[in-house]
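Archive entry. Fields below.
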Amino acid sequence: MSKKHGKHKSGQSGDGAGVTEPSGLSHGQVRPPSTSLWVHAADEIAGVAPGSVEAHGSGAVAAAPGIAVVAPGTPFDLAGVDTAADGGLDKDWTKEALREERARIDALQERLYAERRRSLLLVFQAIDTGGKDGTIRAVLKGVNPQGCTVASFKVPSAEELDHDFLWRYHARTPGRGMIGVFNRSHYEDVLVVRVKGLVPDAVWRARYGLINDFERLLAESGTTILKFFLHISKDEQRRRLEARIANPEKHWKFDPADLVERKSWDSYQEAFADALTRCSTPHAPWLVVPADKKWFRNYVIAKTVADTLAAMDPHFPDAAKDIADLVVPD
Ligand code: AMP
Ligand code: MG
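PREDICTED_STRUCTURE:
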């Protein structure tokens, strides 16, 4: 796999990479946890409201530096992303900064819950061992469980297969006031399903448009959508699989089927690239996260979630009039 260290290519100049660079960190530079750029960008997503979806043509998002935002409709060069990028951030600093981002998420989530008007959906996709479980634990640790739902999607049941492919996902979308997390998602139906040929080509090909319509329905109904693709290298997957095999405490996570799936690595990369390209939209952009370094991955995702919530700017509802004058009876 070819790797470019430092900056991702810009997709705006027609070079075909399909990447909009947020604002690359130069090597050795450590940024404080907040930048106005990120907050402003988040506003672009969070501002999506009924009737205004099409107006957000640029698809700017609250992506932290180091995360690539896939430009809608532009072929995305996954192999051109340095999966080991860390933006020059210091690992120890990042751990402390991650705690701060979690505290921000927790505080903003309380407001979102109290406001009970809108919701946030976090979608995580990755190849096997890509880090979906670890990211969810690291980013959402400390968030009030009552304001959060997590749905992990496995091989569909017979009942699920008796319905349209989006049925089981729609049923698990977050209600008003909630943060919803999809550990795997409706994208499996254009990923594993495509790679393994579980349905005819014409069926999965039609799904990209259906997925875009589904996500637009959610966006127009008050759900802000952040889709994270955790991008690891094939070498990193080998290391992680070997670590699972070597450590008895990780055996429960080891699935021999992952070794079989690894043989289809290239087909998965192709399927991922197509999904990113076809389904990155102004109302639900795809964010590609260099994910070989778990500490970097966790921090930039937490930062992105916190900034997006901040831009949504949830408010506590107005208290009933004169509540401060009330007296609790004996
Ligand atoms: P894991 O997330 O490692 O527990 O594994 C869940 C498994 O379910 C993976 O092998 C996925 O590829 C598979 N899976 C998830 N969604 C679908 C789907 N829609 N169709 C077929 N397999 C799926
Ligand atoms: Mg697995």
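CURATOR_NOTE: The CA atoms of residues 242 and 254 lie 9 Å apart.
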